[in-house]
Amino acid sequence: MSRLTKHAPHALAAFMAAVFLDSLRFKFTDHPNTQEIFGRLNDWASSRGAPGLFAHTGLFSQYVIGGIELLAATLLVLGMTPRRGHLQAAGALAGVLVMTGAVSFHLFTPLTTDPNHDGAGLFIAACTNLVFGLLLLGAFRRRELVVLVRRVLAVFAPLGGAPEHAARPLAAANA
Known about the structure:
The protein is mainly α. The chain has one domain. It contains 8 helices and no strands. Helix 1 runs antiparallel to helix 5 (121-140) and helix 3 (62-78) runs antiparallel to helix 4 (85-108). The longest helix has 25 residues, at 3-27.
């Protein structure tokens, strides 16, 4: 195995985890920058008929997003241990999902790419994590991702198929 294929996934995972973990100090302490960002998003959602979506108790609150980022960082780091690449794939997938949302909200809402007036640092970090997550999944953890997806799908659609009684029409079952 070349050095690149051996160490690159862990370098990408470490960078992603560091970015996620660094953001938690803002999200979990209700930092004014975080209040500004989620407040703008909540105002935007309210104008679209979804008030409270990004509020402190909303479905996409800073605490929910921070919790997902903490989970992603944990899985990315745990995936660095031998025979735990599937955890890294799960962490990268969680990271890609969250960062896809972050980049989209920066681009397609009044949030803009520079809500903190810091030279778009937050947006650049989100884009970088998105690209690194896609690279990690596409180039290094593709097999683990396929296994992970199959395992998740098996929970919702067991390999044995639907039980025999579920295939019968309701009228026949009641006869």
